[in-house]
Structures are given as structure tokens and as C-alpha cells.
Amino acid sequence: MDMKATKKKLGIKERYAHMTRGLGWEPTYQPADAVFPYDKYEGIKIHDWDKWVDPFRLTMDAYWKYQGEKDRKLYAVIDAFAQNNGHLNITDARYLSAIKLFWQGVSPLENYVVQGFARAGRHFRGEASRVACQMQAVDELRHYQTQAHSISNYNKYYNGFHSQRHMWDRVWYLSVPKSFGEDALTAGPFEFLIAISFSFEYVLTNLLFVPFMSGAAYNGDMSTVTFGFSAQSDESRHMTLGIEAIKFLLEQDPANVPIVQGWIDKWFWRGSKVLALVGMMMDYMLPKRVMSWKEAWEIYAEENGGALFRDLARYGIRPPKGWADACEAKDHISHQVWLLFYEYGGAAAFHTWSLTNEELDWLSAKYPDSFDKYYRPRLEFLRDKHARGERVYQSTLPTLCTTCQIPLCFTEPGDPTKISHRETVYEDEKYVFCSVHCQEIFCNEPEKFVQSWLPVNQIYQGNCFNPDVDPTAPDFDPLKAVLEYFKYNLGRDNGEFEGSEDQRNFAMWRGQASKN
Amino acid sequence: MSVEIKAVEIKPLRNTFTNVAELIGGDKPASRYQEATLGVQATTNMHYRPTWEPEFELFDPRRSAIQMHEWYGLKDPRQLYYASWTIQRAKEQETQEANFDFVESRCLHLSLSDDVKKLALDVLLPLRHAAWGANMNNNELCSRAFSEVLISPAIMQAMDNLGIAQYLTRLGLLLDEPEVLDAAKAEWMTGEAWQPLRHMIEDSFVIRDFMEIFLVQNFVFDGLLYPLIYDRFVDDTLTSRGGSAVAMLTSFMPMWFGQSSKWVDGVLKVAVAESEQNKALISQWTNTWRDRAVAALTPIAAMAFGKTQETMLNEVVEQFNARAKKLGIAA
Amino acid sequence: MSKVFIIVQANEEARPIVEALLQDNPHAVAQESPAMVRIEAEGKLTLNRATVEELTGQPFNIQQLHVNLISISGHIDEDDDYLTVAWAN
Q1: Cβ of C77 and A62 within 8 Å?
Q2: Does C68 sit within 8 Å of A11, measured CB to CB?
Q3: Domains (ranges, CATH) in chain A?
Q4: Cβ distance of A135 and B199 shorter than 8 Å
Q5: E strands, chain C, where?
Q6: Does pTM surpass 0.90?
Q7: A461 at interface of B, judged by CB pairs closer than 8 A
Q8: Looking at domain C3-86, does it have CATH number 3.90.56.10?
Q9: Number of folded domains in chain B?
């Protein structure tokens, strides 16, 4: 018998190669193209999948160990939060609107990409790339579920959380993230990877999670900050998948460069539009503010993204086409989106409100080049009207951008007084866009984007009423019927914060809890 | 600002999300499994057709020939959601790790006789590729399935499959030098005994019906392979020949198979009971793939058991048929 | 040179990681925000296993970083003994 006392320990790199690459094989009983039917039609050329590197090299044993540890901690916080009425520790009930919007508009995306990453994790030919995608798939499952479990407690006590799943498929503003996610999921696996792992996770996700979650901590929401940072610890792996993916694609074949550049252009722009919602959350919905959207954009998009694109220049990649316009918009989008939701507050499943002078002053200081000139007067005008008992609610339906599906509310680059608006005629139909970049995305894939399920158009076509309503009835109220189709509890989920049930309940419960 | 919050009795406005309430018979307190899973997948008003499969909607139950009036009836009796899954696996991994440490520190792997060690490696190491095949099929299941009650356990199952492939890899690295992994792969690719199994697994890679993928991989393949290899070969044959160290290094697998079978049975039972058409189709898939799998496992049983191969395989098939029958499958 | 960063949660487990980063990367600076610490440096940042072990007197696996990591920027090179993030420009 061979009695070697101890064997040579393999280094992490060698060991990982055995644990991933070594497992796969080239099929011979079925054609490889039948087993992997999706990785060629996008035109991406891969010559050597073994060049894919996963720098973290997590194997399942370590994965379970660390993820188990993270979740034990996270659920201890979730339990404690529920047991001790942790929701009464938040700064004030206005804060809940940010969490509602997160739950309605961001959490479903986490769930969406589970299937996208499972598809990539099955259909790329290289084993190491597949393992990285699979881990992300199951991580994303984690993110959706931990969010559901954290939000579960808020749902018990506050409005606007209850029908997130139903609303996602129907509500006008949620078609913005929904169409974003479905655009990525219906794309080929490589575009999906560039869309989500690179453009979203690497370039943009820090903007969502880092300052916003720090804001949650600042506003006393231990539940959200804990799931947020816990998710973010997986996100670092996902961001790494994004940057490794792009390097790999660019190094494999020069013909990949223009294809990848096109995807970067498209997905950076689409992502920056979705994040306009986050800008509003940071600047307007956090009662205590950590940093402005503009500051977050400068740190996480301009500085970090700038470093990234300088790095990618050696492959012939330039910053995304919409970069300059998106950077210019940092002074404007959070205000424009807030005004949109304030005025359409009757149709949103969260509350909006008038800002205090102190809050207006904060925004003036953070946005010296734009706020006083373009937005403060309008906000003060709306506040005055509200004070006179004439709270402004828009009831006409807005025009939606065919690509990003946001109502036309953004302004022309270089002219913040002029609403940006583009049109294209395709097969005798007219399509409207919020920007030249959204127009270009449409024109590159018109056969895809003509399929957009645009809520406003669907409302006009009568597709957004519950089956039992009779639109010919004399007392038919179309707006009310649409909001019922959305499953809103009218007057409780939507509208002005001042006087809302959430405001009353929070004040009453906190009063009970903090007094003798 | 931090306020001292007393524990006060506050009456909740509602107990759970409406998508959950609709599936559990009204607004009542829901479990974490239910809130993580029930009614979660998007169902309507989809924007674009998949460029990779324009004949279907993005989320589309027509990707299976099985029909259900309510897909969320296919619940997982284990009620696993991510946290309960990963925490449970972390505990099991700790035990498995302790087993690896125990074997290594006491040099139990060196006490195996050469022929037992060779037999263990010959039979077990090519199976890391079969586990990788299972991982591929469960990823495919996850990506194509309709309803979160399938999507969510499918990706956990896929990761379990990967974990098993990696435990087998570690077993090879502990018992011998890394070259044995290459040798086992060569066997998998060209060794005569392994070709029917590899052929069958590669054929399963082109199945597009997600319920068929579910059944073929998790019910038929696993349902025959695990009892044959881990119960009979590792726990009986090898152990009786002084190879209990190998059983320690693979203790995760039979334990895992017992758990995953609960999910598999839970799904199939409901799908079969739904309609005669479902029952007929599931029975047909089961019979076709079982016969194929038995043929594919025959040369491996010969390698593992020698003279008793027929008895061993027959026992496993009988056990499988009895399980199928209990689920209402005409097997 | 572009800046790289590592952001970790502000908690007890991450404290020696922050300390090790600052000790081994004299050009790095730490910025604190609610619940998190961001360590930023020009060009490159390295976390060494040995330094963390020295600070805590406990064994440390580089992959333990994942438990408290919030974000990271730059190209990553991880081995048993270190993790480096760097930009090539």
C-alpha cells in the first residue's frame, strides 16, 4: 500500500479548474449545436471558452458556507425587526414611499433574471462561465426572496405593498422596469450578459444599492439596509462576472467589438432611464438624505465608469453613446421624475407630498446649477396650491416613450425648458420617443420594439379594465376602472401623503410605542 | 434620531401579499416559503417575444405538453426557499467537510486496499460528469419552467447537482492524484461501459419540454442511479470490503437524494392526478426513459457488482416501479 | 491613475479588513458613510491574508471577505494569500 502521509495541497486556481472546467465534455451523440442552440445567432465569435476566468473561484462547499452565514445573520435581523415593531424606527412614514417603489419596481427584476442567468448558465459552452452564471441565478433568487421577507412586515402595516406582483404586469410606471427586464430576457445570452452583468451590475448597480441602502440605514430602516447590503455582497461577484464577461468577449475576436459596443450603448442608456426612479427616491423620498443623486452619479457613474471605459479603450471600446447626455441629466432627472409622479400622484401606488423649506434648501444647495432656476418655483407653486386645498392631480394620460416607456418628461440636452421628443415612422405607424438614444434603440430593432405593451395605449384600447366592468354604462369612470384593474385600494395606496392612512397610522402607533 | 420603541400591540392591516392570499385561500398568515414562491412569476402583458424562441411568449406554460389548471399546485413539500436551502446545505456541508477531514487526518483513504480503491474510483469518478449533466438539465428546467414553484427549486437542485459533482471531484483528489480525474473523463468519453449512459444523458440535453426534463432527470435518472450507486454500491458493496471511508466521503449524496425525492414525488403526484392526459404522458415518459436508463446502467452495474449485478439492478427497478405506482403512474 | 475601491459593511468582522487594507496600502483612504466604509486608492489595492491574521490572531480565508463586502471596483486577482483590485490605466 502506498503510505504517503499527506498529499500536496492544490492551490485555489488548480483546484477550481478541476471543480468546473474538468466537469464538462464535448457531446458526441448529439450535435453540439443542438445541445447549445443559442450561442451563435447573435454573431459573437468564441474561439476558446477556457480563457474565461472567474477570479473568485467559489465552489459549492464554500458558497454554501458563506451564503449560509450571510442568511443566518440577515434573517436574525428580519425576525428582530418584526418582533420589535422595527418599522416604527424609521424617520417618518414618507420614507415608506421609497421602499414601496423599490418593492414594486426593483424586486421583480431580481426575480426576472433568475431565469435569464439559468439560461446563460445552461447554454454557454464554457463550464467556468456557466458556473458563474448559475451562482448569479441562485443569488438573484435570494435577492427577490429576502426582499419579499423583509418587505412582508411593512406589507402588514402599510399600503402600497400588497399587490406588487399584480401591479408589475399592469401599472403604467412599472412597465418601465418590466420592459427593461423583458428586453434583456428576450435577447440572446450574450446580449443578456452585457445588459445585466456589465451595463447594469457593473456600471450602474452601485448607484442603486450603495447610496440608497446607506440612506436606508440613515433613515432607521434596519431591515432594508440589511437585505440591501447582504444582497450587495453577492453583487460584488456579479459585477466581477460583468467585467470578466466583457473582457472575454472583446479578447476572443475583434469582430465582437462592434456588437458589444452596440449593446453597451443600448443598455447603458436603458439602465440610466430605469435609475431615474432611484434618483427621485434619493433626492425626494428619504426624509434624511445621505447624498444627492448628482453626487452619487459623479462618484459611481462618472468616476468609476470613467475608469472602466479608460480601461476598455485598449480594446477599441468607447464610452456609451448616451454618456454625455446622461451626465448632463444628473442635474435634472430626479426633479423631473418627482414632478411627474407628484402630478400623476393619483395614479401611483405610493404617496407624494410637498417639500418643506428645509428640504427645498437642501436641494438648492446640492443642485446650484438647476434647482432654483427650473424646479424650485414649480414645487413651491404646487405646494401653495396644495395649501389652498387645490392639490394638483393630472388626469389626462401622458405620452409614453416607445422604448423606455417613461412618460415624456425629460428635457432636451442643452435646454432644460424644452421637453425632448422624437418621432419615427415605421411601417406606416408613428412611434414616439423621449430622446434621440431611445429612438436609435428602436430603429436598431424595430421588429422588437413595435411589440412594446405601452400602458397608455392599452388603456385607450380598452385593455386595462377588469372583465366585469361595462364601459358603456352611464356612470362609467374610466380612470377609476383602470386603477381597479391595477388593484389599487383607492384613497389608501395612492395620492397625497398628507392625510393618508399610512401617515395617520404611523403617527398613532409611534405615539403608542414611544409614550407611556 | 433613535426613539425608544416599546413592544406594543398593533393590529396589522393585512396578513400577506395578495398573490399569496389568492393561492392559500384568503388573507391569512403565510409562511416564508409561501411568500417567497406563490404567484411570484409574471404572467401577463409581456412586451417582446424571445428572440431565441419566438414561437413562445417569454413566460409560457405551453413549453410543456403537461397542462395544469393551477401550476402553483405543484408545491415543494420541503418548502425550501433560498435561506432555508442554503442554511441547511451549509450544515450538511459542515458534516461533509468534517468527514473529509476525518478521513484525511486518520489516513483512512490510505487504508483502502488497492482493488477497493480502484473499484471506487472506476465507478464513482465518471459519475461527476453525470452530475454535471444533471446540473445542465436543472438549469434548463429553471430557465424554461412556468411558475415559481418549479423555477425556484430547480435552480437549487441544479446547484446541488454541481455540489455533488464537486464532492466527487474532491473524492478523486483525496484518494489519488489529479490525473485520475483525466483518466475517468477518458472513460466517460470512450470507455465502453459508459457510452450508453453518456448517450442517454446527451439525448436528454435536447429535450425542450420542461416537465419532461424534470421527470427524466430528477425522477428517472436520479431515481435509478442514486439507489444503485450510493445505497447498494457504496454503502453495501464497498463498505463490506473495507471501504467505509468512501461512504463517509459520499454521505451527502444518499441523504440529498432522500430530500430531493420528496420534491419530485410532490410535483409528479399532483401533475398525474390533474388529468388522464397528464397521467398518460407522464407514464409514457417514465416507461420510455426508465427502460433506456436501465440499459444504460447495466454495464455500470456489471462493473460495480460483478455477479450480483442483475439482482442489484432488479431491486432498484422494482423499488422505482413501486414508487412510480404510488404516484399514480402506470409504470 | 484611476481610483479603485473596496466597500465593506461597518461591523466588527470587517474592521480588521479595513485596518489591513489601510496598513498595507499607505496610499489608501477610508471614507465612512452610514453602515459602510469605503476604502479608496489610486491604481491598486491589496488585501493580504497574513495581515488580517496578524491583526486578529485568527485564521482568515480571503473568501471570508465576501460575507461583509458591499462593492468593489477594478480588475480582481484573488489567490489563497491575497486579493488585489487594480486598473490597468
Answers
A1: no
A2: no
A3: 49-352+394-514 (1.10.620.20)
A4: no
A5: 3-9, 29-33, 36-42, 44-48, 69-73, 75-78, 82-86
A6: yes
A7: no
A8: yes
A9: 1
